[in-house]
Amino acid sequence: MHEWSVADAVIRTVIDWADGKKIKVKKVVLGVPSFSFLDVEILKEAFDMMKKDSVLDEAELEVKFKDPKFKCKNCGKEFSLNEVKDQIDSVKSEFGEEYPMHFMPALAPSFIKCPYCGSHDIILESQDMTIDEIQVEENGTVKTVSQG
Amino acid sequence: MEPLRQLAKDKLAGKKVYAVMSAKGGVGKSVISSLLALTMGGTTLIDLDIHTMAIPKLFGLEGKLHEVSKNGIEPFEIKTTKIVSLSGIVKDNYVILPGGNQSSIMESLIAYSHIDTNTVIFDLPPGLGDEILVLERITDFTPIVVTTPSKISKKVVDYLMRYLRERGKEPKILVNLAYMDCDGKVVKPFGEYEGFGLPIDPSIEEYIGRIQDYEGAVKEKLKEFIQSL
């Protein structure tokens, strides 16, 4: 259900960005952290329902999952999602579908410990949900706008 | 592009937003936020103190999880007050986070909340940190600064006052534990103070876990304060 809020956020952001210009948005590429386990099907369904009568009327949503890179600030070691899979699975089994990192990937350091030294002092890259690309049609020309 | 920030902005657009804050810890922000929300009625109270999460403890909501609908995180409802707290996402787990993650969590909490009241009250953690910057990015809030009459509290809170004024805000000052009402005679045990004084009422302690039932002197005085907002 949380996917509906994500779709809402994407649509509002693109509408705000388009700022009343006479463009048609053809595609939006959304980057989401892989360990949020967003349900792409629900997300797309919500996007398609909510985009109607807006600049996004004809837009398709593409979701790209980003695997985070973890680095422990305590011992300096880097590790991958795979190395903390057991920890993530245990949080998922405690909370079920609506588990904390599904909502807020930035909560990861509270639930994930460094597999080498056990510290929570972890930094992650690619933890934010971002709109990475928007494809628009303006005066009959299709162009891709990359977003920071 | 940060879609959550846009959603958070939109959720607060057109609403009256109050931020209960203090540079000093332990001055009673959460109790005052809760009583303000209850006294005003028809408010959404959002607990931005993502580490201590005192609001759910005050209302007896510990261990309860928020429901999630197509509208987002559904607040807990007590009387006409709607309450959102990170504790409704993480249950009774501790929350330890590097700085950058804290603002991301606060922004997400606001963005995903289902807010359908015209007034929103934020209970902020102590200090001058991410919480103020997050709010500044997304809304034009009215600061309610809480202090006590102690010298150290006033000195520390002065940092926050200076900052807020530099940012063009007109903070309202609430002085908690300012005086005792002894059969109509006002006694100020800690001396004079500047701001709107709230009385000392030890009976509040009995209402921790059921603050919604408190109808004592502090709440009465807050009614007057609300008129001045």
UniProtKB/TrEMBL annotation, chain A:
GO-annotated biological processes: protein maturation
InterPro entries assigned to the protein according to its UniProt record, in alphabetical order: HypA/HybF
One GO MF term: nickel cation binding
Residues given in the record as Zn(2+) binding sites: 72, 75, 114, 117
Positions contributing to Ni(2+) binding: 2
Keywords, sorted A to Z: Metal-binding, Nickel, Zinc
Organism domain of life: Archaea
PANTHER family, A to Z: HYDROGENASE MATURATION FACTOR HYPA
Biological role stated in the UniProt entry: Involved in the maturation of [NiFe] hydrogenases. Required for nickel insertion into the metal center of the hydrogenase.
Protein family membership: Belongs to the HypA/HybF family.
Protein name, per record: Hydrogenase maturation factor HypA
Source organism per UniProt: Acidianus infernus
Encoding gene (name): hypA
Automatic annotation (TrEMBL), chain B:
Record's keyword annotation contains ATP-binding: yes
Key words of the record: ATP-binding, Nucleotide-binding
SUPFAM superfamilies in alphabetical order: P-loop containing nucleoside triphosphate hydrolases (SSF52540)
Keyword Oxidoreductase found: no
GO molecular function terms attached to this record: 4 iron, 4 sulfur cluster binding; ATP binding
GO biological process: iron-sulfur cluster assembly
One Pfam family named in its UniProt record: ParA
Family annotation (InterPro entries): NUBPL-like (IPR044304), P-loop_NTPase (IPR027417), YlxH/NBP35 (IPR033756)
Name of the protein in question: P-loop NTPase
